[in-house]
From TrEMBL:
Residues 391-427 are annotated as: Disordered. GO terms for molecular function: endonuclease activity. Pfam families: DUF222. Keywords: Endonuclease, Hydrolase, Nuclease. This is HNH endonuclease.
Length: 427
């Protein structure tokens, strides 16, 4: 068997050779055929990469494979998870006892391996099966997968989508969906981050029950008022905002990570005085200072203010095992999220972590010795040999075990302003 290093060296050499080649040497009609061959080669490389992903082993002391893969390849964690999921569906599998299993999408996997499919083709086929109702039998599913894989090799993804929609209607002509089918599709997601104007776009797939509940609420809270210039969509947005705002801080919601369920916002004294700039929530959302001032109502309970020059914050020492509420607020304000390098978990979903020495080893619960870590990263420190310590600038440095293929360091993900030039560095 050829060495993987020798194969990669040969691939690098071939890519160099290809990059130096002149496609204009070919007659014009043949250039499209050359690009088609190149596209097929690229797709085959992607398929090979996905197949190799199935052979990755989890290192002791490592986070889950998608997280490691994202850092090593410098891709988003969502993309890494998608690659792992694709590999599980498109490549042969092996049971814990060593028994070989066919891919979950066997015909699609064959076309994928041959370089006939693009990632968009795969997404169309995956969506088709994700939305198929549970009453469709295995024989029909197998035939459908074979049909879509065959058409995918001769169609663009947008054309394949039309075929998939028609096939879905054929397999479920009466449009029957069970309660389980509907529940499986429910969800709400933000579509990316905030836009430059601060606005956000979300996608809601609501169950019949939620739709009915919202209809009842909107009938009251979103009803047009005299001289109301708002559109129907704007009134419903404002009604939803009122509905959530009225619940924030409600004792009936209990607590989350030791704090009431409410917004935790941080800003600088300088921005407050100027009435400009942005505050940041523990969820990573930017709020214009003008909105922050307008929001100063009983529904918003916690505002942490830092000196914008020195970064000075509260000092609170405690001998208790659990950090006090005010310490948690300042930690959320200071770090905004998990401090492990590259981690994207926001502050609301992070835990207090003893950065210098764990509590059970004699660490103190003083604010300068505390930081934030998500549940996963907290566990790798406690169980898998990672180490953390505080730097003089207040940031938390993470050091992995020597045999873990990850770089240590600090996390700037929740602080994108650190990558921007300072005022005295601007032209």
């Amino acid at each position: 068997m050829r060495s993987i290093h020798a194969a990669l060296d040969a691939l690098d050499a071939a890519v160099e050779l290809l990059g130096a080649a002149d496609i204009e040497e070919l007659p014009a009609p043949e250039r499209f055929a050359a690009i088609e061959r190149l596209e097929s080669a690229v797709r085959r490389q992607v398929a090979v990469s996905h197949e190799q992903i199935t052979h990755l082993d989890r290192y002791e002391g490592c986070p889950p494979i998608p997280i490691v893969l994202a850092d090593v390849l410098r891709i988003s964690r969502a993309a890494a998870k998608r690659r792992v999921s694709d590999a599980e569906q498109l490549t042969p599998r092996t049971t814990l006892t060593g028994e070989a299993l066919a891919p979950l999408l066997p015909e699609t996997g064959k076309a994928w391996e041959a370089g006939q499919l693009d990632g968009e083709h795969v997404r169309v086929i995956q969506k088709f099966f994700r939305e198929l109702p549970g009453h469709v039998g295995p024989v029909e599913i197998e035939k459908a997968e074979r049909t879509l894989a065959e058409h995918a090799q001769a169609m663009r993804p947008d054309q394949l989508e039309k075929v998939a929609d028609r096939l879905a209607t054929l397999l479920n002509p009466d449009g029957k969906y069970s309660e389980e089918d509907r529940a499986r599709k429910r969800g709400f997601l933000w579509c990316g981050g905030q836009r430059p104007d601060g606005m956000s776009v979300g996608k809601l797939v609501a169950t019949p029950q939620l739709r009915a509940e919202l209809d009842a609420v909107f009938a009251k809270l979103a009803a047009p008022q005299p001289d109301d210039l708002r559109s129907h969509a704007q009134r419903q947005h404002d009604a939803l905002s009122q509905l959530v705002r009225d619940r924030l801080g409600d004792p009936k919601l209990g607590q989350h990570n030791g704090l009431p369920v409410t917004m935790i916002v941080t800003t600088t004294l300088q921005d407050l005085q100027a009435g400009a700039g942005h505050a940041v929530t523990a969820g990573g959302t930017l709020i214009p200072i003008t909105d922050l001032i307008r929001m100063a109502t009983p529904s918003y309970n916690y505002l942490a203010v830092f000196d914008g020059v020195t970064g000075q914050s509260l000092w609170l020492g405690r001998s208790k095992r659990l950090a006090s509420a005010d310490q948690r607020i300042m930690l959320l304000a200071k770090y905004r999220g998990c401090t492990a390098p590259g981690c994207t978990v926001n502050g609301y979903n992070s835990q207090v972590h003893h950065a210098t020495k764990d509590w059970k080893h004699g660490g103190t619960t003083d604010i300068d010795h505390l930081t934030l870590a998500c549940k996963c990263d907290n566990l790798v420190v406690e169980n898998d040999g990672w180490a953390t310590h505080q730097l003089p600038n207040g940031q938390t440095h993470w050091t992995p075990p020597s045999d873990v293929p990850l770089r240590g360091g600090t996390n700037d993900f929740h602080h994108p302003e650190r990558f921007l030039p300072k005022d005295d560095e601007k032209d």
